[in-house]
Structures are given as structure tokens and as C-alpha cells.
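INFO batch 0412 | record 1 of 1 | parsing
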Amino acid sequence: MSKRRAKGIKREKRIEKRERKKEREKKKKGKKKRREERILIGPLKLTRFERARIVGARALQLSMGAPLLIKPPRGVTNPVDLAVMELKKGVLPITIRRTLPDESYQDIPIQWLSTE
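INFO prediction complete | emitting C-alpha cells
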């Protein structure tokens, strides 16, 4: 085998190795997209502060005439009670933004969070 041929083979192997590395990196990027669907910041359940904020905001909306997202039970007319029921049923289209001190954040739909 000539020197020229040996260099050509080595070069081809390096190119193949580079291409395999690029393919692995692409696969890793795909995995990162799936990981973004998980909760990365804070607890896996709704905190008492988030819960209070959501219930208060939704109760205000209901008191100002917003439509109910659930069928109201008989005798319940208090907006706070109705807001709590909507939260427990998981029908509120609300997203929580959890931030870190370095100003990074994650937006989390409340359907992902446990409301217990």
C-alpha cells in the first residue's frame, strides 16, 4: 500500500468519525427538547403561594363576570370556592413562570403540577 493510499484511508476514517460525532450531537439535541417538557425548576406540585395567587386571580375574574369553566354545583356562589373547584378539576388554562436568581425561568402549565 502506498503512502498516498494510506493517507487517504486515514482521512476517510477521520471524516467518518466526525460525521458520527455530529449525528450523536443531533440525537442529544433531540433529547434536550424532550427534557424541556419536564419540570426543571421548583417542586413537582403547586406551592401554596402559587395556589393562592391562582385562586385569587381566578376569583377576581369570576367576580368581574368571566364565564365558569365547570358546571357550578347547587348553592355555591362564592367566587373563591368556584375558583378552587376549577383548580382542582384542572380546567384552568394558566401557566406558572418559575424563575431562578440568575433570571432563567421555566413556564409550566398548571396541568403538569399536582394540586394537592
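INFO post-check: The longest strand covers residues 95-99.
INFO record closed
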